[in-house]
Amino acid sequence: MQNRTAVVSGASIAGLSTAYWLRRTGWDVTVIERAPAFRDGGQNVDVRGVARDVLRRMGLFDAVKAANTTETGTVLVDGRGVVTAELPSDGAGGATAELEILRGDLARTVLDALPAGVTFVYGDSVSAVDDDADGVTLTTEAGRRLRADLFVIAEGVRSRTRATVFGEDVVDQRDLDVTMVFGTIPRTDRDDDRWRWHNAVRGRQVHLRPDPYGTIRAILAYSPGDDVIGLSREETLAVVRRRYDGVGWEAPRILDALDTSPDVYIDQLQQVRMSTWHRGHVVMAGDAGWCVTPMGGGGASLALTAGYVLAAQLADPTQDQEAALAAYESWMRPLVDDVQDLPRGLMAFAYPQSRLALALRGVVDRVLTSKPLRPLAAKLTQVAETDRELPVLVGR
Ligand SMILES: Cc1cc2nc3c(=O)[nH]c(=O)nc-3n(C[C@H](O)[C@H](O)[C@H](O)COP(=O)(O)OP(=O)(O)OC[C@H]3O[C@@H](n4cnc5c(N)ncnc54)[C@H](O)[C@@H]3O)c2cc1C
What we know:
Blueprint: E1 5-9, H1 13-24, E2 28-33, E3 44-46, H2 50-58, H3 61-66, E4 73-77, E5 83-87, E6 100-102, H4 103-113, E7 119-122, E8 126-131, E9 136-140, E10 145-148, E11 150-153, H5 161-165, E12 171-186, E13 194-200, E14 204-210, E15 215-222, H6 233-243, H7 251-258, E16 264-274, E17 278-279, E18 282-284, H8 287-290, H9 293-296, H10 299-315, H11 321-340, H12 346-350, H13 355-368, H14 374-380
Helix pairs in contact: 1-4, 1-10, 2-10, 10-11
The structure holds flavin-adenine dinucleotide.
The site of flavin-adenine dinucleotide (FAD) has 33 residues, from helix 1, strand 2, helix 8 and helix 10.
């Protein structure tokens, strides 16, 4: 019997996990990536909950642990850098999780472990999708025509192909009104191996986190955010600099260093919710289908898990492809819903605007991280948790 064929659009965590598991279960897989080459780069992500199990099944748990960012814990600091609270970071799913890794390192680890035979096309993307009774025909910007049994859209939050297949009635994009700037900056003597987090009035956060390369990963996150999509990096950084006027601690140093940082990633947080993740021979995976944003947390874990669950359902001989896609969706949806439904008041708590709100936040932080309440605080950082076993994967 001929192998089934899949085209996966996007070569990051979701796309590579999907390619890995489909290939391992006998599919012929082509990955199309819009960027001209594999994209390294990106800042801290973590692997939590059931995604840890997926990594184990890939045989990559130890490799990911070895590529750890070296972060030892998470603390909140005041404007002078004095620690005001320490978040629980013991165990697999604390604020600093057991598996903390840079996005590029995680993607590279999966890429290097791909079974032989996955075809890559870089510098191209799908421009038209023609789904029929027997399969799907894809046309690319460069004029390629690809025929497949399955087309997986794993293009991240700003996927273009999503709109080609699924209409506005299916896709709901919610702007969370948060702007985030991530960048790699030089390490100084003042830095250490903890994630240090400072909140300032008018909803401005400042974060410094260690990496395994002797540099520091800086994050500025603020709400209300700015409309920076379409702006150049210089224009965006100028907007952010104005926003951070008057913020102390390490903010001035970070702003200066971002100007020359080799690795800046800017995001305006947008949740993606879709009423269905599959139609005909097309299916969504990762941020393209359900971007949970760092506010929900666990985007990388869900993206990793999606590849496994999709391949396992498709390998189940008792169901046809349509039933497998439906089963994939029902398995993944509770995990996604769990992190997308943000608790009421979370935004005001995460991004205090006034001095009073900031002071209240400080009190809550101290209470929540006090010894009796630490187990409750630890629960807040748990994502991709489920009592369900991963579906069995036939024919590994
Ligand atoms: C370069 C980069 C840096 C990142 N840095 C951070 C970070 O610092 N912190 C953080 O929390 N998250 C970051 N993310 C997002 C994070 O990787 C995701 O939230 C999460 O891991 C889910 O991954 P994903 O594979 O669904 O989507 P993504 O990681 O966003 O990957 C989508 C992939 O699809 C490709 N693509 C997009 N459109 C097309 C198209 N039309 N055709 C073909 N390919 C396409 C993109 O180039 C990318 O490789 C980053 C993503 C990227 C791509």
